[in-house]
Specification:
about 280 residues, mainly beta, Lipocalin, 4-stranded antiparallel β-sheet
């Protein structure tokens, strides 16, 4: 059972390694890193972690630590070594939230107040705050779905850079000490219902890192593209335009017998690209 406070603020929970089998044959991810959305190779798998079968955020049963993060976010935490990174968007209005549950409404949230988009670094073992930085602040360039937040995309790291993507608010890169390195404005990314252009639901596709580039998938109401930015300074390495409906898929790198491919899942097509050239 998760705490009700999750609907008004983001809480991170680190679990004690209890009540789980210890004879797993598979090894955990190298170094215990979870660098991106769904972890290594986007598999969502981390073997031999000895996680508890049950836990409770209110009573702290089988919980090692709990740390409250201001604002709202659907982004997932990522881990490199003993550092845990997460993003959040803090509204200028008090008491704002998102509407959870199953329902068919496609309305946008009434919260269009000034926001602070922040990146946090916590100690993975203790939950202590190591650093926090404001990536950007101001009036959102577009609205968000009533179910969503202004920080939907999971950040990514390769142990050298931490890259956060806030949709129309831009892309922001930091070193592991929280020092800002570069930022890029990709323009207004108007994402919403394919058959109702006036709907603004916000971005949710997460960035990935391949070699020395960060790759983003941007399918919108107007211009659709996949883009690779240089990790060192953010300049465009390649950009491939495409014809798609708005979508929220995160690109994936696949290594097979034919070589390495960048795979994107859109509303119309699943496409494979050369991740080094965008072809």
């Amino acid at each position: 059972m998760l705490p009700k406070a999750l609907t008004t603020s983001l809480l991170l929970i680190s679990l004690l390694f209890l009540n789980a089998p210890t004879d797993c044959a598979s090894a955990p991810p190298k170094g215990g890193n979870w660098p991106s959305f769904r972890g290594p190779n986007a598999s969502g798998v981390a073997d031999q972690q000895n996680l508890p079968v049950t836990f409770d955020g209110d009573s702290l049963r089988n919980v090692l630590w709990k740390q409250e993060i201001p604002g709202l976010a659907h982004s997932s935490p990522i881990v490199w070594g003993d550092q845990l990174f997460v993003t959040s968007a803090i509204s200028g209005e008090s008491g704002v939230s998102f509407k959870s549950g199953l329902y068919g409404s496609g309305d946008a949230s009434p919260d269009h107040s000034p926001q602070q988009w922040k990146v946090y670094c916590l100690n993975k073992k203790t939950g202590d705050l190591v650093w926090e930085v404001v990536a950007t602040e101001g009036i959102p360039k577009d609205k968000r779905h009533i179910k969503a937040t202004y920080a939907n995309s999971t950040p990514v790291t390769d142990g050298r850079y931490v890259v956060a993507f806030f949709g129309s608010q831009g892309v922001y890169a930091f070193d592991l000490a929280g020092e800002p390195l570069w930022q890029r404005d990709l323009g207004r990314l108007n994402v919403g219902a394919y058959d109702a252009p006036s709907y603004e639901w916000g971005s949710a596709s997460s960035p990935i890192i391949f070699e020395d580039t960060v790759i983003l998938q941007c399918d919108t109401q107007a211009d659709d593209f996949v883009i690779a930015l240089d990790l060192q300074d953010g300049h465009t390495v390649w950009k491939s335009t495409r014809d798609e409906f708005p979508s929220w898929g995160t690109p994936t790198i696949f290594s097979g017998e034919g070589g390495v491919e960048l795979v994107t899942n859109g509303a119309n097509f699943i496409r494979g690209y050369n991740p080094r050239t965008g072809a």
